[in-house]
Design a protein that fits this description.
By secondary structure, the protein is of the alpha/beta class. The chain is built from 9 helices and 27 strands.
């Protein structure tokens, strides 16, 4: 096999329990987003647009949902000879018989796959973030800095910093000076985006050094990055200034959908030369009945709209009955909302039927309510 400069490993195996009902029957990266996409479309499109066309997708929870959706990667032009997509679920062999127990452990279990491609660099990304990024800029900085690992970072609101790995960096050289994984009291709001470029030989040597320590290789943020800092490896930060959203909670998922309703925050409408690709469902145009209306909303294909939609994202194949009002909400595919229903400040799971004359009911498990204070704070 000819040596590849860079190999991409896309982590897509997390269960995503904080998304509640949305991930009950599918992997988090497969969750619909923005009316026509899936969350994983953004990472796969970044790979295609960056020319990173050899991608290993590490799956675990509900892997069939991703495999059925992605298939051979044709929709993202990742099905070329000597490249393309490979699905990498957990497996058993003489010395490895566990489920993936963290980001680093998942990569370590696939050393043979990586070595088969014999790359100089390994790009590690996540399948559950909304953003557009040219990974070549990250690679260029990595090379210029002679780094062992380069981590893409962004500034997050201080009240959210404890959700992330945060770091201190030298403002001139961009060298990483300190790192804490999800600290209770963050000293910085510079957050890791979970996007890494490693020198493969360096990472391979670390894996081999600790291959008999079953508790050490679990996670990059908790284990590998702190070890590299203590051991004087060269760690550098790539500062990303574009839109980026970790959609790991129902609230952040709702917020990312609502961001699509403003030209200022919609990442899809920005950088139009960097398109987001997705599967084509070949659905008919959406039908709007006389008397229906929608304002500041996105409506996917194949819908039938008889009611009113305000500041909402409606996925494909949704029916909204006469007299129904949808406001500040996200409705996932194949949902039927009958007549005179009122839904506000909510995420409605897909394949749901909502009977007539229903106003929001906390006991209805397929409707996930968003705290109205969060909505007021966004305005």
């Amino acid at each position: 096999m000819a040596k590849k400069e860079i190999l991409t490993l896309l982590l897509a195996g997390g269960r995503g329990t904080r998304l509640k009902k949305l991930t009950e029957k599918m992997a988090k990266p497969a969750v619909p987003f923005g009316g026509k996409y899936r969350i994983i479309d953004f990472a796969l499109s970044n790979c295609r647009n960056s020319g990173m066309n050899t991608v290993g997708i590490l799956t675990q929870y509900q892997p069939h949902t991703l495999q059925n959706y992605i298939s051979n990667g044709e929709n993202w032009e990742l099905n070329r000879k000597d490249s393309g997509i490979t699905f990498l679920p957990p497996f058993q062999c003489d010395d490895m018989d566990r489920w993936y127990e963290g980001t680093a452990h998942a990569i370590a279990q696939n050393r043979q796959y990586i070595q088969y491609h014999n790359p100089e660099y390994v790009l590690v990304i996540s399948g559950d973030h909304i953003y557009k990024m040219d990974y070549n800029k990250l690679l260029d900085l990595h090379k210029r800095s002679a780094a062992d690992v380069t981590i893409s970072v962004t500034h997050v609101p201080w009240d959210e910093a404890s959700r992330f790995g945060v770091m201190n960096i030298d403002p001139k050289t961009k060298r990483i000076l300190g790192f804490e994984e999800k600290p209770l009291f963050p000293q910085s709001n510079i957050a890791s985006m979970g996007i890494y470029i490693f020198n493969w030989q360096t990472l391979k040597a670390i894996f081999e050094q600790f291959q008999n320590d079953r508790d050490y290789l679990n996670d990059f943020g908790k284990d590998i990055i702190p070890f590299m800092l203590k051991s004087n490896y060269r760690l550098f930060a790539h500062e990303f200034n574009g839109y980026w959203k970790d959609v790991g909670t129902v609230e952040s998922y709702w917020e990312a959908n609502m961001d699509l309703l403003s030209l200022k925050t919609n990442p899809i409408l920005k950088q139009k030369d960097w398109p987001i690709f997705t599967a084509d469902y070949s659905l008919p145009p959406t039908f709007f009945e006389e008397g229906s209306s929608f304002t500041q909303s996105l409506v996917g294909e194949g819908c039938e709209i008889y009611g009113k939609i305000q500041s909402s994202v409606i996925s494909h194949s949704v029916t909204v009955g006469k007299g129904s009002v949808i406001k500040n909400s996200v409705i996932l595919p194949n949902t039927i909302i009958k007549e005179n229903v009122e839904i506000k400040n909510s995420v409605v799971n897909g394949n749901t039927i909502i009977d007539s004359n229903l106003k929001f009911n906390d006991s209805f498990s397929n409707i996930l309510r968003i705290d109205e204070k969060k909505i007021l704070n966004r305005r």
